[in-house]
Amino acid sequence: MAKRTFKSDLSVSGIEQLKKDLLNYKNNILQRKLELLTQKLAEQGVDIAKANVSKLDAIFTGELFNSISAKPEKARKQTAVCCVVADSKHACFVEFGTGQLGMEAPYPHPLPEGLEWNYNTGKTIFEIAPGEYGWFYPRDGKWYFTQGMPARPFMFETSMELAQLVDKTVREVFRQ
Prior knowledge:
Layout: H1 12-55, H2 63-67, E1 68-73, E2 81-86, H3 91-96, H4 99-104, E3 126-129, E4 132-139, E5 142-146, E6 148-149, H5 154-163, H6 166-175
Antiparallel strand pairs: 1-2, 3-4, 4-5
C-alpha cells in the first residue's frame, strides 16, 4: 500500500485535524482490507463449491455448476459481506436431496435455522409399488421418471472447507 504524508501546524486545531485525518485514513484502510478479505474468501468458496459439485457427481446439465458465484452484499461501515451463491432453481434439491432416494440418504448435517425439509411430498408423487414412490418430469420434450436423489451437501461441505482457509487468508490480506 502506498505511503501517505500528513501535514499539520502545531496549533491545537491543527493537531485535532491531523488526528481526524489519521483516524479516517485508518478506517478507510480497514474497510478496503475487509472488502478484499471477503472477496478473496468468496472467490475461494466458489472454487471449492464447484469442485464439490463435481466431486459429489451433481453435474447434470451444468446449470448448477455454472450458477455458483460470489456476490457482494451491501454492508454497514467497517463491515464487508460477500456470499457464495448457487443461483440455480434446483440447488436446494441437490443439497438436501429429494424423494425416496433422499429419504434413504438424507441430509447428514443439522438443517439451517428456520428450514424444514421433507422427502416424498408433493402433488405429483405417487406410489409405484408398496413403499416405493416417484414422479415423472418433462425435459427436452420427453418425460422421465425419478424416485428423487440423495442429499449432496456441496454448500455445507464448502463452508467447512472454507472455514479452514480463513486464518491463512486473513494473514495474507492484512499483511499487505
